């Protein structure tokens, strides 16, 4: 059952082509890993799947859950069930995280519930993530650290229950505490929501606790290799060099 079908996608900014004919299929509930050197275009692909208007799609199509979403706004893609990490909440003076979470969940018909039920739901998720309830009352204008942003990301993930979550280096530069929250959040997402996952990561440790279905390697805007989970260990040992030479001739 194909959930996401990226087919022949070329995209870039106004003056710079970044992705070149990218094909990527993700089945419902599958876990995929996207690896590649810095500047390869991994984040761009995530943003293009999410519909970020920064990038213009020049060819190809993106189908999600049976619907052609190539021209859809990011909002509609989000409602369709796609989640891209680092949707940092806008900093709104005086608005607690809790209210922000309430407002984003109320935009979704399938998540509509009473204030009481919402309190219960969010409380349970915070417990699962080992977050103190006082964290939920933090104001969005009060500077969150990188680790705290990732915790908010995991709250959003478990609350919104997307069909596909794209986590872009969600594990990089975190302290042990935040890494545990992220790791546990992803685990819970797999177990309770059963949604598909595209992990863009260099950190193979966070992958140890996940069953990876497919690994993709991107170099210079091309997907140059695809393989089973064992490809991750291979890259861990040998790096991207052999893929680099492959992509070099293609520009
Ligand atoms: P990765 O996530 O694999 O490190 P990115 O997708 O961030 O790679 O970037 C791929 C290439 O596209 C890089 O050369 C980067 O500088 C460029 N790029 C990405 N986004 C933009 C942008 N908004 N404007 C200009 N160049 C960009
Ligand atoms: Mg192609
Ligand atoms: Mg990136």
UniProtKB/TrEMBL annotation:
<dbReference type="InterPro" id="IPR003439">
    <property type="entry name" value="ABC_transporter-like_ATP-bd"/>
</dbReference>
<dbReference type="InterPro" id="IPR027417">
    <property type="entry name" value="P-loop_NTPase"/>
</dbReference>
<dbReference type="InterPro" id="IPR003593">
    <property type="entry name" value="AAA+_ATPase"/>
</dbReference>
<protein>
    <submittedName>
        <fullName>Fe-S cluster assembly ATPase SufC</fullName>
    </submittedName>
</protein>
<dbReference type="Pfam" id="PF00005">
    <property type="entry name" value="ABC_tran"/>
</dbReference>
<feature type="domain" description="ABC transporter">
    <location>
        <begin position="4"/>
        <end position="245"/>
    </location>
</feature>
<comment type="similarity">
    <text>Belongs to the ABC transporter superfamily. Ycf16 family.</text>
</comment>
<dbReference type="InterPro" id="IPR010230">
    <property type="entry name" value="FeS-cluster_ATPase_SufC"/>
</dbReference>
<keyword id="KW-0547">Nucleotide-binding</keyword>
<dbReference type="InterPro" id="IPR017871">
    <property type="entry name" value="ABC_transporter-like_CS"/>
</dbReference>
<keyword id="KW-0067">ATP-binding</keyword>
